[in-house]
Amino acid sequence: MIALMRQILKKMHVPLYLHSKSKHVFSVHQHVIMLVLRQYESKSYESFVEWLEVSTEITQMLGMKTIPHYTTLQKAAARLSDILLHVAIGRFIGLVCPDKIFAGADATGFEDRHAASYYTYRACLVRSYTKLSAGSDMKTQLVIAVVIRHNSTGHEIKLFPKIFEEVTTVATPWIFVLDMGYDAEWVHQMIRRHQIVSMIPVRKKSDTIGRTKGRYRKQMRRGFDESLYHQRNKCETIFSVIKRRFGSEIKSYNGIMKERELLYRVLAYNCHRMCMISALLWMISMQPFFA
User: How far apart are CA 283 and CA 107, in angstroms?
Assistant: First the structure.
C-alpha cells in the first residue's frame, strides 16, 4: 500500500513540501500515506500514533526519523486540498484498465456517531448522516469518482450530473449501469449524448410500452439486458466492503473534515482493492510454475 500510494503521488507530480521554508520534518507524501493508513487501520489519531510507535517496519518504509504528534496529522488533514484527494482516487483505474470501462454508480450514507443511541432516543434527536455518491468500474471494483453531501434530503438522482461529469473526466465508459432510482429520460439523454450505452430498468414494469414515456425508456422496455444490469450489484459490494472493513461511522465533527475523512477512506479502499488485484495477477502468472 505504501509503495502504491507513492506511485500514485509521483504520477500526480505532488511536491514533497508545500513551501521551501517549511520545517521539512514530514513530507506531503508521508502525511497522505499516514492518513490513508489511519483509515485502513480504522484508528483514531491518538491510537494511530501509538500504533506507529511499535510499527518499526512501517516507519522505516515511510522513511520517518521521528513519530509525529497526533495533532500534526490533524493539521495535515485540514491543510491538504480536497482536489488532491479526488485526483488521487481517479488515478487508480489507469494502472489496471487504460481502455474503456464498465461504469456504474450508486449512493450510500455514513452515520455521524457523536452521541449514544440511547441518548439520541431519549432526547428525540435526529441522527445526521453524510451521503456518498460513487462512480466505479464494475470489472475491477475500483472507485473512480465520488461526490459527498452532508444531510442531503434530496433524491440521489440530483447528484448524477456531477458524478457523471467526474467519471467521464477520469475514464471513458462504454456502458453506464444504474438502478431503478435513476430511471429518467434526461439521465438516458445525458449518457447517450456521450456515445455511452445506458442500462437502467424502468420503474413501472407492469405498464405497456405505449404508456412508457421517453424514447430511451421505451428502448429499455424492449431490449433490457439482465446480464449486463446485474453487474451493477458490485456497487453494493463496494459499499459493503468499505463499511465492513473501514467502518460506517464518521468520527469528524466539521463538515469539511467529514468529507476528507471519507475521501481518505475511499483511498484506503482503492489501495486495498489494488493489492488484491495484484495478488490475484501474481497467482495467475505463477500457475505454470506450480503445474
Answer: 33
End-to-end CA distance of the chain: 30
Q: Which three cell numbers stand for residue 50?
A: 501509538
User: For the CA atoms of the chain, what is the radius of gyration?
Assistant: 21
Give the three-state DSSP class for 187: helix
Q: What domains can be seen in the chain, in order of their start residue?
A: 2-80 (no CATH), 86-261 (3.30.420)
Q: How many CB atoms lie within 10 A of CB 122?
A: 9
Query: What confidence category does residue 87 fall into, taking pLDDT thresholds of 50, 70 and 90?
Result: very high
Residue 246 has pLDDT above 80, yes or no: yes
Cα(47)–Cα(41) distance, integer angstroms? 10
Burial of 130 per CB tally in 10 Å (0-12, 13-18, 19+): buried
Q: Identify which of 23, 115, 113, 40 has the alpha carbon closest to the alpha carbon of residue 75.
A: 23
